[in-house]
Amino acid sequence: MKRFAVGMGALAVAMTGLLTANAADDNTIKIGALATLEGAFTVLGEDGMRGVEMALQEVNYTVAGKKIELLKGSSDASPDSAIRATRKLVERDGVKVMVGPLSGSEGLAVRDYAKTQPNVTFINGTSGAQDTTLRDSAPNFFRFSTDGAQMMAGLGEYVYNVKGYKKLAVVAEDYSFPYTQVFGMLEPFCRLGGKAPAKARFWVPIGNKDYSSIIAALPDDVDAIFVALGGSDAINFLTQYEQAGGDLPLVGGSITVDQTVLSAKGRTRKFIIGVPSAGPLADTWDDPRWKKFVADYKKAFPKGFPSPSLFAQFYYINTKALLLALEQVGGDVSDGGVKLRAALSKLEFDTPTGKVRLDERRNGIANNFVTEVAVGPDGNLINKTVKVIENVNQTLGVPYEEFLKYGPVSRTNPVCE
Fold first, then answer.
1. Which phi and psi (to 5°) does residue 228 adopt?
2. Which domains, ranges and CATH numbers included, belong to the chain?
3. What is the C-alpha separation between 404 and 101, in angstroms, rounded?
4. pTM of whole model > 0.90?
């Protein structure tokens, strides 16, 4: 009987612990966040995480009366690393909502993984591959940010009509996001009469360090070079091109001259002043929503960049969308996220760069900015606003079925001989 009493007492203690744990679980929402915290895009991922943390700090890590627990995952921009990190967060840590990933091919892989986890809700980080949402989308994957082609809106026309460039060479990383950026840049440029022949397009792996052979092979009969590189890849190319005495004008992809590159020290500073680009933000946009976001970023992260990068901005926007939808459903994801995804699908809200809403494929419709690199009032390099392109959708204003006829983005699409 004594042993029985002891056993019952131990069982009671165990049951009390289990009930307490369940109560804690009921009052806590685990959010997984995945970014490139290793490899060539580490600095990009670090600023992406700052964006997540900014959105959570605004609500004091609480939504609908429930505490938020942030669990971070790290990748190196490769699809395999993104899936390993995502699988751990979902299958071992038990998150029911995910924000990320950062890089294009990672996004395609996570979208496919999402199809195997119908009770988990996935919200993009900054991954900008077009087909993450355009073709074969997942019903539980949402992207309140824009894809790589949308981020180029207005640049092809500006380069052709204003800068007067009629023939371009291309240097870009060899994966889905740069394919999408090149498509978004060249489609209007080529339609207007510009040329970017296949033999003048150079594709490099992520993490490439030596650009000497590519720089030597760049043709002389072009007006400018369109560079769609990011992180240390962009810095390495720009530094080596300047050291080699390169004198052709440059046109930048969205992450080629954003704050993750502009804040790097070195001789390239003067070299890239005046470079036109386009993307989802402009450092000098004179709008109170943007000014507040910049001020909040600087206060929260005094050792961050002089101005938030698009990675901080996009991760912030996507996390903000998640928090707004969680608030609407009382933080309840016990139904496998059904109510949460319904709320996300209908969400429209103000961001630091204007209103954002989703299309029927759960992809963002948002403003885009044509910019040029300039020296800011404090001596830092910035992207000054040239033009705002409002409400850019994923098909760039073309009807969906017509847009699909362009075919998937690739090294050679669009043909521009």
1. -115, 70
2. 29-146+287-366 (3.40.50.2300), 150-285+368-404 (3.40.50.2300)
3. 25
4. yes
Q: Could you tell me the two tokens for 68?
A: 């938020």
Q: How many CB atoms neighbour CB 58 within 10 A?
A: 14
389, 383 contact by CB (below 8 A): no
pLDDT tens over the chain, length 417 residues: 444 444 444 444 444 443 433 434 679 999 999 999 999 999 999 999 999 999 999 999 999 999 999 999 999 999 999 999 999 999 999 999 999 999 999 999 999 999 999 999 999 999 999 999 999 999 999 999 999 999 999 999 999 999 999 999 999 999 999 999 999 999 999 999 999 999 999 999 999 999 999 999 999 999 999 999 999 999 999 999 999 999 999 999 999 999 999 988 777 778 899 999 999 999 999 999 999 999 999 999 999 999 999 999 999 999 999 999 999 999 999 999 999 999 999 999 999 999 999 999 999 999 999 999 999 998 999 999 999 999 999 999 999 999 999 999 999 999 999
